[in-house]
Design brief:
The protein is mainly α. The protein is built from five helices and two strands, in the order αααββαα. About 55% of the residues lie in helices and about 5% in strands.
């Protein structure tokens, strides 16, 4: 399974919070193979929106509508998330994701 497919499978399995840990640099499965925040300014902007999107999905699920919480309007960024996936999901190494899935199978 390629990286984008694996990430989509994690989202569909309700594991946005685990994927968020990878993106935020908090996963115990991260190695030096995962480079973290991309150096390209365009990809860095997308990375920030991916973090925001994953936080939203982890809290509210895969809903498309914005949510209001604590007086703030929170929105998902599915287009930017898809753009990140289409760019090869830079910053996270496939082998790190596979290490996670080997200990936490998808089903």
């Amino acid at each position: 399974m390629e990286k984008s497919e694996l990430i989509r499978a994690l989202i569909q399995a309700g594991r946005a919070d685990d994927l968020l840990a990878f993106v935020e640099g908090e996963s115990v499965y991260l190695t030096d193979a995962s480079q973290g925040v991309p150096e390209s300014p365009a990809l860095r902007r997308i990375w920030v929106l991916v973090v925001t999107h994953l936080r939203f999905v982890a809290k509210y699920g895969a809903v498309a509508e914005h949510q209001v919480a604590g007086g703030q309007v929170l929105s998902p960024y599915p287009a930017e998330f898809q753009l990140w996936l289409a760019s090869g999901a830079p910053g996270i190494a496939l082998e790190d994701l596979r290490a996670y899935v080997s200990e936490h199978p998808l089903g």
